[in-house]
Amino acid sequence: MAQTIKEFIFCILIILVSLQSFAIKPNRAYRFYPEKLCLVYKDLDVTTVDNIKIKTWFFPAQSIPSEKEMNDMWENPMKKPYKAIDNKPRPTIIIANGDAGNMSYQQLHHAQFFTSIGYNVVTFDWRGFGESSEWEIDTDYLVYSELLIDYDAVINEVLKQDEVDTNRLAVYGWSTGAYLSMAAASKHENIKAFVAIGLMTSFDETVPVLMKSQNKDESKLKVPADYPKELQPIHLAPSWNKATFLIVGEKDDRTPVWMSQKIYSLLSAKKEMWIVEGAEHGGMKGPLRDFDLFHKRVLEFLKTNLK
User: In sequence order, which residues have a C-beta less than 8 Å from that of residue 37 and are 6 or more positions away?
Assistant: First the structure.
């Protein structure tokens, strides 16, 4: 039964990655809540400077539930009392969504893994996504600069939590969430490590690639005029001082390998790159197609760089 649940979860989580094509596609409804996966969590009270509520889940490091408990909670989910594994401040991973769906997809699978080995995990939804505040979105936009405000508010609230070792923070995201993570991390000394799956270089280089790979007119790939040029990866990379792990599919046609290689060549801090053989940008053929291998590689990187 437990294996069946795991396989089902994987299938519905991986669907989200296939939806991501560098255009905002919010989903307001959650697939299910973390209790269905037997996860202990709490809601953080995150409000942005422009008074937007950002739905945020904080998962403390926790024990692995028994198979019976997993099965029971899957059938009859009930939110568990909040309890961390101990009172020790722990390394914490903040996971940013991409441009589609919400945090009830693959983020929960990542939370299961990392909390079971001693990390805290934080997930959140951009404004207009999930149960965050309503916010009007034009789905022809690649991103909104306001999402950087959302990310900053989440980081600031995470730093206030007693369970968090504020000197051992990491951020990671995929696609849109990757470059937003890099931009957000650049403003915070506390963030020591960065994991990016499918990282673009700049909008100037990415839009032509997307026009070709997605067969879209430039009018359907809008870039906000107020997005800070200095926060695009190609401009951050030369002075970047955080340990970085770049992951990209060998056959990625949206953020091709050459983009990661270009960023990698500019980084002077600790760095690793993994070109996933045969993988595309997302979906069942993306870099996350083998969650066990993905988690193993990311864990090795975090152990080294969040000591």
Answer: 9, 70, 73, 74, 108, 112
